[in-house]
Write a structure and sequence with these properties.
Helices cover 53% and strands 3% of the residues. The chain has 393 residues and is mainly alpha-helical. The chain has a three-stranded antiparallel beta sheet with strand order 1-2-3. The protein is globular, with a radius of gyration of 22 Å. Bound molecules: s-citryldethia Coenzyme A. One of its GO terms (biological process) is tricarboxylic acid cycle.
Length: 393
Amino acid sequence: KMNLFTYDPGYKSTASCESKITYIDGDEGILLYRGYPIEQLAEKSNFLEVCYLIFYGELPTQEQYEEFVYVIKHHSMVHEGFRDFINGFRRDAHPMAIMVGMVGAMSAFYHDSTDITNPSHQEISAHRLLAKIPTIAAMSYKYTIGQPFIYPRNDLGYAENFLHMMYAVPAEPYHIDPLYAKALDLILILHADHEQNASASTVRLAGSSGANPFAAASAGIGCLWGAAHGGANEAVIRMLEKIGSANHIPEFIARAKDKDDSFRLMGFGHRVYKHYDPRAKIIRKMAIDIINKTSGNDPLLNIAMKLEEIALTDEYFIEKKLYPNVDFYSGIIYKALGIPTSMFTVIFVMGRMIGWIAQWREMIQDPERVIGRPRQNYIGHASRDFVPIDERK
Ligand code: SDX
């Protein structure tokens, strides 16, 4: 297995890159956005302020913040063409399939801002992606349940607007629970960026060829969908449902340790964190709070906590440094918010969009930018002559 991070292809490659946006220390479980610890941002900030920080590099003044909020509200409505475009999908399509298509289609609807060499085009594209992703996400959901679309309102905050677009129906008022809006806003902060994860690298790689930001973001959504990456939150819930009760946990722990069994403990392990994912710590506390304040008890949360307790005392997980990651508890919160499992990774897209587009712009503005082209170790046949079909065995 070639380790891209030490392999020198003999030329500057995207196998490793420089960035000023996010810092992770996997051994210490540290995560900083532009130098600010995730724990402080989670406690003291809000998602749009964190988006400003990640994109522009500094926390906004009151005036900068208010102007940014206004711009994002201004761009939150989508082009009327999306209502026709979405009708091309099957009603039983996975919302992530619709997201890949709709975000890619932004290249067609907003082609007036796709000159990637133009800094103002870079900025307006970023604003459009951040502003429209909740609207597109809610449309993807409403379309699959056959309900009319609900459009963004200027009197609502970012997370509130999404909950309203997801759950409101034209016929009656919808009450937005502040607890739910706060929980969603925090979840989005925790998912905003994570340095060179697979989907961020995909966006960088796609953008490095000069593809427009909407096409690059669509590529990122496709990559995030995988169960080993952003799709893990949905896979965790399915795993907990399959475990069914705490007394079945040992059987699944044994399967996770069995090399001949493809089963892995979803929501456990990480490419970089060899310690508890700092985001998982915050989400775990939030999951317990929200369950206590809503249903009072959640069998899946109980199984998750017991599973974590057993795994963290098992020598296999200790030796391999496998800890819960951001996806292990997030699904518990989504369920408590009434979000269907098919929308879990869509929420991840909503949080991560700002990280992708900030990294895309950082890469585009790099004067030494190279077109991403990782090299390979060729392990196939040596050169050999063609064999006519009647001579093949
Ligand atoms: C995300 O990169 C990011 O930052 C991603 C992310 C982000 O914010 O963008 O943090 C979001 O993707 C989090 C990860 C979500 N995925 C899952 O929860 C799926 C389950 N996790 C595994 O698929 C796995 O842990 C990975 C893919 C996340 C990492 O796999 P690696 O790189 O193989 O992990 P590793 O090298 O640390 O593994 C060490 C050993 C290996 O066994 P050996 O080869 O040493 O025998 O531990 C094993 C692995 O096979 N292992 C597991 C395991 N994860 C790793 N064994 C059982 N269950 C697991 N979950």
